[in-house]
Amino acid sequence: MLRRRLNRLLGRVENRVESRTIYVGHRSSSTNEAIIPPKFCDNRIVSSKYTVWNFLPKNLFEQFRRIANFYFLIIFLVQVIVDTPTSPVTSGLPLFFVITVTAIKQGYEDWLRHKADNEVNKFPVTVLEEGRRIQKESEKIKVGDVVEVKEDETFPCDLILLQSSRVDETCFVTTASLDGESNHKTHYTVPDTEEDLETLNATIECEQPQPDLYKFVGIMNINRHDQESAARSLGPENLLLKGATLKNTQKICGVAIYTGMETKMALNYQGKSQKRSAVEKSINAFLLVYLCILVSKALVCTTLKYVWQNKPGQDEPWYNEKTQREKDTNLYLKMFTDFLSFMVLFNFIIPVSMYVTVEMQKFLGSFFITWDKDFFDPEIKEGALVNTSDLNEELGQVEYVFTDKTGTLTQNNMEFIECCIDGFQYKYPDASSELDGFCVTDGPVNKVQEKAGREKEELFLRALCLCHTVQVKESTEPGQGQEDGLMDQVDGEVLHPPREQRGFIASSPDEVALVKGAMRFGFTFLGLESKNMKILTRNNDIETYELLHVLNFDPVRRRMSVIVRSNSGDTLLFCKGADSSIFPRVKQEEVERIRMNVERNATEGYRTLCVACKYLSAEDYAQADAGLREARLALQDREAKLMAVYNQVETGMSLIGATAVEDRLQEEAAETMEALQGAGIKVWVLTGDKMETAKSTCYACRLFQRSTELLELTVRTLEDGGRKREERLHELLLEYHRKAVQDAPSIKAGVTRTWSSANQDYGFIIDGATLSMVLNASSESNSSSYKNLFLQICQNCTSVLCCRMAPLQKAQIVKMVKNSKGSPITLSIGDGANDVSMILEAHVGIGIKGKEGRQAVRNSDYAIPKLKHLKKLLLAHGHLYYVRIAHLVQYFFYKNLCFILPQFLYQFFCGYSQQPLYDAAYLTMYNICFTSMPILAYSLLEQHICIEVLLDNATLYREIAKNGMLQWRPFLYWTLLGVFHGLLFFFGVRYLFSNPALQDNGQVFGNWSYGTIVFTVLVFTVTLKLALDTRHWTWINHFVIWGSLLFYVFFSFFWGGIIWPFLKQQRLYFVFANMLSSVSAWLVIILLILLSLLPEILLVVFRKPRGPHARQKKPVQSNVGGHQSPRSSARPLLMRTFSDESNTVI
Amino acid sequence: MMASSYNAKEEDGHHPGASNNGGAGVVKSKKPDNTAFKQQRLPAWQPILTAGTVLPAFFVIGLIFIPIGIGLYVTSNNIKEYEIDYTGADVNNACYNCAKNFSWNSTTPCLCSVPFTLEQPFESNVFMYYGLSNFYQNHRRYVKSRDDSQLNGDQSALKSPSKECEPYRTSEGQPIAPCGAIANSLFNDTLELYHIDSNGTRNAIPLVKKGIAWWTDKHVKFRNPGGNDNLTVAFQGTSKPVNWRKPVFEMDPSDPENNGFINEDFIVWMRTAALPTFRKLYRIIQKKSSTTPTLPSGKYVLEITYNYPVRSFDGRKRMILSTISWMGGKNPFLGIAYITVGSICFFLGVVLLIIHHKYDTRNSSADIPS
């Protein structure tokens, strides 16, 4: 990890100095010049941590870096070296156990990583070498190799595209696993490369590897024997990234330029670092406190010992002489060993067994997630997956959820729902959904039956068929010419109706949905060949249109147009776009009829588009054509000029209709988001997708409400003012800050609840480019202040949407929030490889077992089949796990404090001689046998509030927010309780022993009886205290609690009933039995147990009983909930696609 | 004590989900089992502690504890106890000279006698204890300085005692039996009790030395090597503890059942005390007849053979005469504690009742509008 960081750092330094030179196919530019083979790393991906030979030392080293393990090691060594009151076995054995189990677990995990690496590294690839095709393992690819990739294969390394099987020198690529965009992207071959790659002699100069997926600069020098070498510039459009998949292209050849860990994908990965939960941090903090207690106890005892020994006759009375060795020992050494002995005597206050129990609780507890049948998805036939059990409780502490959009919030599956032509509503009859019912019963019922004029209908459908940039997926049958193939296909389709099988490829899934929608109404787009668009009409006629111009979509204009010439010679302009951008450009009388439909659709949560058209006269067209051509060729301000022409052309159109497309949300996405927000969790959407799409999804998920005021900080808003971006950024940040932070005084209260009910909700939108400006502002001072402003704004917004994010930027955002004030707990959820970096960065990473491969699942901490499962995972499982483990930790510290405190107090009565109060067997067994099982059972089974209630009341999640049960206050309470109990046990028995004649035959009890009485009280009190805390008594709890008490009694009888041959001292022989024969001992045991539990009972009574209210569900309430969920899914939301201008600030 | 609601959620009818999976046999293992345990739906008892349920418990505890406490207190008060400090720390004490002139090497025992008067007769069996103060029998070095297998009659341990016995392991090249500091420092004062008649004659009171040690200690834990006969031979080749005047096999020559390691005085001493001030049972004075008290009121003399030095470590020696009840020796602590706790519970019960009453009425009135 460190090494890699270092390398990357070095790489960066290198980066500034030089670029890399690559000889394509390892052929040097000139034969007489010796090639100095440049050293690049090989194409091996390494994600594993250990190798066979460094496993043991490295793993041990890492384990002993844990403060607790190191501490136990020290204690163990002290016990081995120094004469101590307890045997080394008592701490050595558990430590050995813990270390071994952890090592085995980590070894197994690393073995899995090795296996996964090998799968990638051994993948066979074809490399062209000296004109031959050679099969190689992927890891053997070297920089400069020419690699051949076939359709649907992923690229084994970063390649420069040299040759494509497609005629137009392009290839299609989907980068779903990199940035989550599942659409097809077109990449181009380097111009002028020869057909025959064998003879190609070229070098590539390009920048050193860098993680930005969208940036690449390089030059390719092509050497020809007869000519000057030609230089071609290389950009991202020539670069095929490792991890992307070749689509719709038979095969390509490319030259490897970045390999292995230097590929952009690998650079975008972050090493999987050990994640620690907040609970573990609390444990460590408490551990330190107890360590201080321990050390101070030992110090106090050592000091007092020497003070006490100073009195004459105390140190070495005649009845208790020292051995010769003790006499010879140096005084200071003696003091030191005394100190260590006290440490060892009291070391049980920090028990190894706590770590064992915590680990076991986490490990066993995580099975409940895997076992939960609610997480089972019948579609993929899988349930949840737990990759790490260390973070169970962190699920109950989440404050920020970062979610991917594509595939996580949405199914990324657009569907044409309805259209409106000339004010009449058309709905495809087969589209059966709940919404149909809604519509039929609603107002515009009649209009469904009514039809617009046939002419208008057809115009509209033609518009849908023509106004797009969709490509038809061609059949991949080789041999025949493209044209013939297509014609065949067309003929076939005419004969065989199932046309919907046809595949479309587009940069935006909505366009596909629209074309498919038109197909349903009888107009089929057949494809585009050499500027001719063919459509099949209802009457099975094929119409051909010449595509003259495409006026591309851009987010500022928010519309796109095409200019086509029909067979009849008419020149037509079709335009589609957001209502807000279309309405001002059409005749106003047409608007009203359609506006109603559009607005209704928008409130139903669909993405709406308006379609307009215009007949261009010959002069008009000539003018437009000239303008467009000129603008396209302009070298300066090309964008602005184009925009001006576009705006000029797209005027005076007539509105012909509107469409509604549904971007299907994941099941229950909105409910899940609502529940999360109800639980006080802030949801941020981080997506690589376009802002418009993302925004509509946010509306659909109810992350943004109608009342939400949107603060937008994107390239668009930055360019609005016409000033420099930097200035505008500064200005906007300040403005938003004033709005969201300063003008909202209620936030100061700090309680999430108050502010979410505050009058104004804010939503924040930022895009990748702007974010990098915020994070890497030109001057240092600005950068930090921008970052702070940005953070503060974000933290005061209900939801934040970050679009156009590169994977690493997602991680940056997560990191920024993670490290912000109060270090909130973050959770990332995503399904694609582009989410891996943020999944790794966040405290908890959740992978969705989606369509985009297994990358996210492999790197996640938990994997669930669907987004909706997140609700139960957090609200029920997370909550319970947190409560369980928090109680477990506090209880463990408590029970060991009151275990050791009497031992400490006993030192005051035994001449500070490190005499243990309890027998060695009790010392060892206390944590292992007598008191461990009840708390383990508790920490696995406790449901202080039952699961249904937790799911129904998301607000319950807030009760445990901010690590509430492991703050210093509860810790202090438990510690004081432990001290109280310890004092009570010791002094209660102490006063009983002021006359040790406790039996009715006058016989006396000795020191071991004393210890046994204290220990008996201790075991019973501690177990009953847990019983009092248990709110959910299953038979297992009963069995374990009463069982361990019984076990204690039986064990004590047994242990004291036999003269054990292997024991040096028979200290406890019949001590327990004799104790039970004494009435006084019984009385004192009962008294002390009762007295210690008394305050606990009182507290339980005085605390407001939460139980009955929370637990007893009112049937009415659950009914309401049952009704609500279908209804709420039926009316998704306020959402506008391209038309939410009204809510935006700018 | 607790209000409880049984919240048994019945399991769904269909069990391990394969059957309804419709032939998808391969995948069936992946579908989580629908068992109550795995779905965290085990039937559970969910006790709720409320003021209403705890209240009676407080009263009950109070009502039980107070009488017990009173009983304990009365019992403890009825126990008669008489204590004599015979350390000889000050000049007035009868044993002053013995304490002052003590030397390990003296061969003649120093005797002293302490006269005392019992104001009240001791009715039942009287137990005679010796008490030591500031004697750290619970010091770690001391506690571990013994060899239980030697004391259990193990031959090999007899010849080579455990290292824990250092520096009382060997003397003059021979293993010490019994080894260790505890055995070495065996309390060896002899206490005798005489009743002085109204006419001035001293009547020795018979002191029973059996039944002062735990039965299991005497019969199982402590054993002489090679049986109880002929201890002299059994202990051949061992040496007596340095501070002892006579070897272990001469502890009680008159009674083979009380000699050697199974000598009860020795066993009692070997049970190390819990606190630096302790008492150990020395002798028992059996009640002779039901009519006369065991120790009638009157004048007594305690005859002490002063062998045991305690002045060097500021210790104290006491002789205690005490009767015993079912709860053991005199100790008012338990009685007081029980009365206190009982009263607290009772008091809390009353307070809770008041609070509960007020809270309840407020609560119910608040409930109506909601």
UniProtKB/TrEMBL annotation, chain A:
Binding residue positions for Mg(2+): 404, 406, 831, 835
Protein origin, superkingdom: Eukaryota
Q: Cofactor(s) for this protein?
A: Mg(2+)
The GO terms this record gives for MF are: ATP binding; ATP hydrolysis activity; ATPase-coupled intramembrane lipid transporter activity; magnesium ion binding
Q: Where is the P-type ATPase N-terminal domain?
A: 33-91
Q: Where is the P-type ATPase A domain?
A: 124-201
Q: Name one Pfam family in it.
A: PhoLip_ATPase_N
Q: Report if keyword Cytoplasm is assigned.
A: no
Positions of the region Disordered?
A: 1109-1129
Please give the name of this protein: Phospholipid-transporting ATPase
Automatic annotation (TrEMBL), chain B:
Q: Where in the cell is it found?
A: Apical cell membrane; Cytoplasmic vesicle, Secretory vesicle membrane; Golgi apparatus; Membrane
Top-level lineage group: Eukaryota
Question: What keywords is this UniProt entry annotated with?
Answer: Cell membrane, Cytoplasmic vesicle, Disulfide bond, Glycoprotein, Golgi apparatus, Lipid transport, Membrane, Transmembrane, Transmembrane helix, Transport
Report the main location listed first in the record: membrane
One GO process term, biological-process aspect: phospholipid translocation
What's the protein's topology in the membrane? Multi-pass membrane protein
Which InterPro entries does this entry report, sorted A to Z?
Answer: CDC50/LEM3_fam
Any one GO cellular component localisation term in the record? endoplasmic reticulum
**TM region(s), chain numbering:** 48-74, 333-355
Stretches the record annotates as Disordered? 1-25, 147-169
Residue ranges with Polar residues bias: 150-159
The family line of this record is:
Belongs to the CDC50/LEM3 family.
What PANTHER family does UniProt report for this protein, alphabetically? CELL CYCLE CONTROL PROTEIN 50 (PTHR10926), CELL CYCLE CONTROL PROTEIN 50A (PTHR10926:SF17)
Q: What is this protein called?
A: Cell cycle control protein
Q: Which organism is it from?
A: Zoarces viviparus (Viviparous eelpout)
